[in-house]
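This part of the workshop introduces the protein records we will be handling. An example says more than a description, so a record of this kind follows:
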Amino acid sequence: VGVPSAGKSTLLNAMTDGRAQTKVGAYPFTTLAPNLGVCKDEYNSIVVADIPGLLEGAHSGIGLGIDFLRHIERCRVIVH
């Protein structure tokens, strides 16, 4: 979770060796919906979520608003 254009999608692509194939762009709000990717090693795997950027005032509809935040409820760890 972070502000727009902070590198969240780039991090997800790097953690999943590009298997997540999220859209990366040099402009805000490239991610319009949550993206999921699986990060694996030889013994374990975790699902990593890329949540669209949050702006101050999102609760008032600024930016993409807060509709997608329901996806965060299922997360065990949130990185900001």
